[in-house]
Amino acid sequence: MNAETLKGHLDLLLLTALEAHPAHGYAIAETLRARSEQAFDLPEGTLYPALHRLERAGLLASRWSDQSGRRRRVYHLTAKGRRALVKRQRDWLDFARAMRAVVGVQA
Amino acid sequence: MNAETLKGHLDLLLLTALEAHPAHGYAIAETLRARSEQAFDLPEGTLYPALHRLERAGLLASRWSDQSGRRRRVYHLTAKGRRALVKRQRDWLDFARAMRAVVGVQA
DNA sequence: ACGCGTGGCATAGCATAGCGATGTATGAAT
DNA sequence: ATTCATACATCGCTATGCTATGCCACGCGT
Fold first, then answer.
1. Which residue is nearest to nucleotide D9 (CA to C1')?
2. CATH topology of domain A10-103
3. Does A7 lie at the interface with B, CB-CB under 8 angstroms?
């Protein structure tokens, strides 16, 4: 998966990964890797700045967890984040539909 | 359709629009607008630089057409462009499949 | 004669997002 | 001891799409 492919769709992935329950960055990356069958393997320079960005935007909130000396920042969706998630899902479906219409049949 | 949504997928749209027959910039934009049911409405500052970029990359070639004083630059796919189109189609399908797997069911 | 809408192209400048590289630190396994 | 996986952070780069602006030609209405 090359660089620009993800652009503009990363937020949806991150929000989706946090939909069911809170998680820390590394776990989010694992979830996405697993669910996508290795297609999405977020580099750290992508993952962490994106989480910071979403937190700054008020879609996520975080707290430190300190289980056995291992410091982790655990993120969870805010109310605003949940609303954003719904909107991004709609946006994605619209986008995918339009792409399908232009590009041709879906596999 | 917001700004970053398109990022990384514009090339595929442009190449697709030129798959059947050559066309000039404005006509390409019309085609995409029509096929996507208005979802894709490329601003000029997006369209023309992108065409230049694809031509520089050797995926497109162009010639001027001068019908009745109306100057148009008509683009067509090169051999390399056709190969790129096939690859981008595959990439898109992979990406869409992975998104679907992560985000959930398709509309 | 003038403006306006549509067709048609171009570019400068900007904002932003994702990524590579690098650094730090802990615990488990070898 | 060393290496690997876990875990987070950030600097700096690059690419890309968009806004704004400018140019020109044609046809239509007033």
1. A48
2. Arc Repressor Mutant, subunit A (1.10.10)
3. yes
